[in-house]
Specification:
With about 325 residues, the chain is mainly alpha-helical. The chain is built from twelve helices and no strands.
Length: about 325
C-alpha cells in the first residue's frame, strides 16, 4: 500500500508505459491509412467510437468500484484481527501465569504469521506475474519473499513446525489454542467469564480468517474482468481511427490525433490496469493491504506488552510502499 503523499508521475508513467506505446503506434497507423493510398480517407464514424466509449466508461467504473470494495474489505478484516489480537493478549497477560501467557501470545503471533504466508501464496488469476508489476516490485520487497514460514515458527512457536494431519498451519494453530484454553479452564487456571471471552475472541479469529480466505480464494468474477478488458482494448483500438477524421479537417493538424488519441487511450487502459492490480488485495502489489507490516507491528506490540525486550524491528515503507 502506498503510504506517501502520492505516486510520482514518472513512476506511474513507467508502470503504464506499454499502453502509451501501443496508442502511439496505433495512432501513427491510423494516420498512415488515412493519408496513403489505396485506403486514403479511411476512418471510423465518430459516433460509433463515442457510443463504445460511453459503454466502456460504465463497465470500467463498475469494475473499479467492485475491486475497491474487495480491497476495503480486506483492510477491514485485518483491522478487526488487530483489535481481536490486542484483546486476546490482554486477557492472557492479566489472567494467566507469565509463562503460560507467553506461550499463548506467541502461538497467536505464529497464527498471524501462518495467515499472512497463506494469503501471500500465488494464485493463477492474480496479476503479480504481469511484466509491469514485476518491474515495479523491484522498488520494494515482500517479507515473505525473504524468509520461510518454518524459520518464523522456530523463533515464535517451535511446536507449530509439526502440523496435525490434514490441517493448514493457521487452522492447526487455532485448534491448538482452543485446546490450551480448554485445558486451562478444566484445571481452574481460567475463570469461567474469561474462558468465555477468550472463546469468543478465538471464534472471531476464525471468522476473520474465513473472510480473508474468501477474498483470497475467490477472484473478481472472470466474466466481468474479461468483458471489461476486451471493451477497453476495443475502444482504444478504434479510437485513433475515429479521431483522425476529426483532426484531418485542420490540415496539418491531423498529427494532433497522435497525442490526443494517446492521452484518451492511456487514460482508459491505465484505469483498467489499476483495477486489475487492485482486485486481489493480499498478493503483494504496491496497492494491496500491507499485511506483513500489520502483523509485524502487532508482534512488536504484543511481545512488548509481555515485557520482552528482544523484539523484531518494524517494517519501514520502501519508496513509499508499505507491505
Amino acid at each position: 500500500m502506498h503510504v506517501g503523499r502520492s505516486y510520482r508521475v514518472v513512476e506511474f508513467a513507467m508502470w503504464s508505459r506499454r499502453s502509451v506505446v501501443y496508442m502511439v503506434l496505433l495512432s501513427l497507423l491510423a494516420i498512415g491509412l488515412f493519408m496513403l493510398p489505396p485506403l486514403e480517407g479511411f476512418a471510423l464514424p465518430w459516433q460509433v467510437v463515442v457510443m463504445l466509449g460511453t459503454t466502456v466508461s460504465l463497465v470500467a467504473g463498475f469494475k473499479n468500484s467492485q475491486v475497491l470494495g474487495r480491497s476495503a474489505e480486506g483492510l477491514q478484516a485485518f483491522a478487526q484481527i488487530a483489535a481481536t489480537s490486542r484483546m486476546l493478549a490482554g486477557f492472557c497477560r492479566d489472567f494467566c501465569e507469565p509463562q503460560v501467557a507467553r506461550i499463548l501470545v506467541h502461538r497467536h503471533i505464529a497464527w498471524l504469521t501462518a495467515l499472512r504466508f497463506s494469503l501471500r501464496r500465488p494464485m493463477p488469476w492474480e496479476s503479480m506475474g504481469r511484466r509491469a508489476n514485476v518491474e515495479f516490485r523491484r522498488r520494494y520487497h515482500i517479507l515473505e519473499d525473504t524468509t520461510t514460514i518454518g524459520a518464523e515458527f522456530e523463533r515464535l512457536a517451535p511446536e507449530a513446525t509439526v502440523l496435525s494431519a490434514g490441517l493448514r498451519p493457521d487452522l492447526d494453530l487455532l485448534s491448538r489454542q482452543a485446546e490450551a484454553f480448554n485445558t486451562l479452564f478444566k484445571t481452574g487456571d481460567l475463570p469461567p467469564q474469561i474462558y468465555v471471552e477468550l472463546t469468543k475472541l478465538l471464534r472471531d479469529c476464525h471468522d476473520q480468517q474465513a473472510r480473508c480466505d474468501r477474498i483470497k480464494n475467490s477472484p473478481y468474477p472472470r466474466q466481468y474482468a474479461i468483458v471489461s478488458a476486451m471493451l477497453v482494448w476495443c475502444f482504444c483500438t478504434f479510437l485513433p481511427f475515429g479521431v483522425v477524421a476529426l483532426f484531418s479537417q485542420m490540415g496539418i493538424g491531423i498529427w494532433l490525433a497522435v497525442p490526443f488519441s494517446t492521452l484518451i487511450g492511456w487514460m482508459y487502459m491505465a484505469l483498467d490496469q489499476v483495477g486489475e492490480s487492485t482486485s486481489n488485495p493480499f498478493e503483494g502489489n504496491a496497492n494491496d493491504v500491507p499485511i506483513s507490516q500489520i502483523c509485524r507491528d502487532l508482534e512488536i506490540e504484543l511481545r512488548t506488552a509481555l515485557g520482552e525486550s528482544e523484539v523484531p524491528r518494524p517494517l519501514p515503507a520502501v519508496n513509499g510502499i508499505a507491505t
